[in-house]
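pls design
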C-alpha cells in the first residue's frame, strides 16, 4: 500500500525523510554560517562603506537580534501553516535579503538588510527540528539528528574561515552574494523534497507574541550591546542594566500570561515541566555559549600575539570543524544502541578538558600546529554532544507542541550565543586591564597588527584566563546531562487542542 503525501512515518523510516533532511541541511548551514561570517570582514566593511566600528558591529548584532527574538513565534507558525510552507517563506526571504546585503551602499542599508535576513533565518530554523521529529521514527531519529548536529556544530566554526577566504579572494560583498546561488538551489531542493506534513489549526496568542518579542528583544539587546554602551547610558536616563531588567520583567509577565491565558498558549508550560526537555535546553545553552565565546579570545591571540592573518588564524581551527563533521553522524547512528546521556556527558567533559588544555597552551612560543592539534579534542567532545542533546529535547514531545518545543530549543541556543559573546567581551576587557600595564592595549599594536614583544605574554595570559569561562559553563552543562533520563521514559507534553489539516 502506498503511503499518502501527508501520512506520518510509522515504524520504518519514510523514504522521503532522508531527501527532506538533506534539503533542510543546506539552508540550515547557511543561516548558521551567516551568524559568524561577518567577524573576519569587519575591517573590510568599515573601509568599504566609510563607516566606523560601532556601525559595523550592528551588521552582526542586527542579524542576531532579528534571528533570536521571533523564534518562539516562528516555531508555532510551523505548527499552524506547516513546516514546509514556513521554511520556504524563510528561505526566500533570507536569499533575497542576502542579495540586498551585497548591494548595500551604506551601513544603514546593510544593517536593514541583515535584519530582514535574520527574520528569514528565524522562520527557517525551528522547522528543521520539527521535520526531523515528525518524519523520523525513534529508531533512526538519532542518525538524522547526528547530521543536524554536525551541521550546527561545524557551521558556527566555519563562518570566520569562510569569511576570511571570501574577503581575501573576492571582497566583503561576496560573503553575502555567495548565499544567492546556494539559496536558489536550496529553495529548489526544499520545494521538491519537503513533504506537506499535517498542519494544525492553532489560535494565535497575540498578547503572548507581543510580550515574548518585547521581553526577548530587551534582554538580548541589553546583553549584546552592553559593551558598546560601556554598560551605562543608552539614551537619557535609560541604562543597559535597566534595559535588561525591563526585559526580564516583561518576559516574566509573558510566562504568567501563558499560565492564565484562556486561549492556546504560545509556550505550553507543560514543556518546562518535562525533565528531559528542560535539561536538554540547559545543555544546549552551555554548548552554544561555549562555541560562540571561545573563538573570540582564540582569534585575538592568533592575530595579535602570533601575527597571523585572519584566514590563517581561522584555518588553525579547521581540524576541530572537520573532526566534528565526520564524527557527529557516527554519534547519531550510535544513539540507536546507547542512551544519549552515555554520549553527551563524556562529550561535555572531553570538550571542557580539550578547551582547558588549549587555553593553557596560549603562550607566545607555543607552536601553532600544537594548538591546532588540541582543537581535535574540542571537536571530539563537540561531536558527542549535539545530536544526543537534540534527541533528548525532542523525543518525548507530543505532535501538537513539536513546533513550540523547537522554537524554545532554538531560541535558547541563540540567546546563549549572544550572552556568551557579551560575557566574553566583558571578561577579556577586565583580564587585559589586569594583565597589561596601565594604558597598554590597542594603541600599542605594531604596524603588522602585533603587540610589542614585551606585552605578548600578558595578553596571552589574559586570553587564557578568559577561556576559563566557557570551560566552567561546559562543566555545568555536564551536570545537566548527568540527569538525562532515557528518551521515552517520561510522559509527553500534553497536546494542545488542535484541528488536524493538511499543509
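designed seq:
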Amino acid at each position: 500500500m502506498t503511503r499518502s503525501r501527508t501520512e506520518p512515518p510509522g515504524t520504518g523510516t519514510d523514504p522521503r525523510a532522508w531527501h527532506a533532511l538533506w534539503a533542510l541541511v543546506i539552508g540550515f548551514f547557511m543561516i548558521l554560517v551567516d551568524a559568524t561570517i561577518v567577524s573576519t570582514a569587519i575591517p573590510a566593511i568599515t573601509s568599504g562603506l566609510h563607516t566606523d566600528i560601532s556601525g559595523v558591529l550592528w551588521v552582526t548584532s542586527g542579524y542576531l537580534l532579528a534571528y533570536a527574538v521571533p523564534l518562539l513565534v516562528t516555531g508555532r507558525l510551523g505548527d499552524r501553516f506547516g513546516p514546509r510552507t514556513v521554511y520556504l517563506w524563510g528561505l526566500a526571504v533570507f536569499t533575497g535579503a542576502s542579495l540586498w546585503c551585497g548591494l548595500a551602499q551604506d551601513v544603514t542599508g546593510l544593517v536593514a538588510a541583515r535584519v530582514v535576513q535574520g527574520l528569514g533565518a528565524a522562520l527557517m530554523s525551528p522547522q528543521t527540528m520539527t521535520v526531523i521529529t515528525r518524519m523520523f521514527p525513534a529508531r533512526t531519529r538519532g542518525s538524522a539528528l547526528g547530521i543536524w548536529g554536525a551541521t550546527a556544530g561545524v557551521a558556527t566554526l566555519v563562518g570566520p574561515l569562510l569569511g576570511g577566504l571570501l574577503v581575501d579572494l573576492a571582497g566583503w560583498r561576496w560573503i553575502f552574494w555567495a548565499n544567492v546561488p546556494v539559496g536558489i538551489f536550496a529553495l529548489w531542493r526544499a520545494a521538491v523534497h519537503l513533504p506537506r506534513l499535517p498542519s494544525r489549526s492553532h489560535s494565535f496568542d497575540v498578547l503572548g507574541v507581543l510580550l515574548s518579542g518585547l521581553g526577548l528583544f530587551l534582554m538580548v539587546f541589553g546583553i549584546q550591546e552592553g559593551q558598546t554602551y560601556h554598560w551605562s547610558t543608552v539614551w537619557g536616563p535609560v541604562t543597559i542594566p535597566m534595559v535588561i531588567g525591563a526585559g526580564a520583567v516583561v518576559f516574566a509577565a509573558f510566562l504568567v500570561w501563558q499560565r492564565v491565558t484562556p486561549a492556546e498558549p504560545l509556550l505550553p508550560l507543560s514543556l518546562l515541566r518535562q525533565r528531559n526537555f528542560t535539561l536538554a535546553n540547559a545543555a544546549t545553552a552551555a554548548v552554544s555559549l561555549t562555541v560562540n565565546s571561545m573563538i573570540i579570545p582564540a582569534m585575538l591571540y592568533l592575530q595579535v600575539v602570533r601575527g597571523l592573518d585572519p584566514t590563517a588564524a581561522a584555518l588553525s581551527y579547521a581540524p576541530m570543524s572537520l573532526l566534528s563533521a565526520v564524527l557527529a553522524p557516527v554519534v547519531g547512528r550510535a544513539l540507536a544502541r546507547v542512551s544519549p546521556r552515555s554520549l553527551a556527558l563524556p562529550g561535555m567533559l572531553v570538550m571542557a578538558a580539550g578547551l582547558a588544555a588549549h587555553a593553557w597552551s596560549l603562550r607566545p612560543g607555543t607552536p601553532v600546529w600544537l594548538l591546532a592539534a588540541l582543537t581535535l579534542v574540542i571537536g571530539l567532545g563537540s561531536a558527542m554532544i549535539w545530536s544526543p542533546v537534540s534527541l533528548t529535547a525532542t523525543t518525548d514531545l507530543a505532535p501538537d507542541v513539536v513546533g513550540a518545543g523547537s522554537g524554545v530549543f532554538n531560541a535558547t541556543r541563540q540567546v546563549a550565543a549572544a550572552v556568551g559573546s557579551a560575557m566574553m567581551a566583558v571578561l577579556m576587557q577586565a583580564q587585559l586591564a589586569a594583565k597589561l600595564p596601565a594604558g597598554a592595549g590597542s594603541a600599542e599594536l605594531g604596524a603588522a597588527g602585533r603587540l610589542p614583544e614585551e606585552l605578548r605574554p600578558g595578553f596571552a595570559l589574559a586570553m587564557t584566563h578568559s577561556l576559563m569561562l566557557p570551560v566552567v559553563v561546559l562543566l555545568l552543562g555536564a551536570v545537566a546531562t548527568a540527569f538525562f533520563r532515557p528518551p521515552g521514559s517520561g510522559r509527553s507534553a500534553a497536546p494542545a487542542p488542535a484541528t488536524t489539516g493538511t499543509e
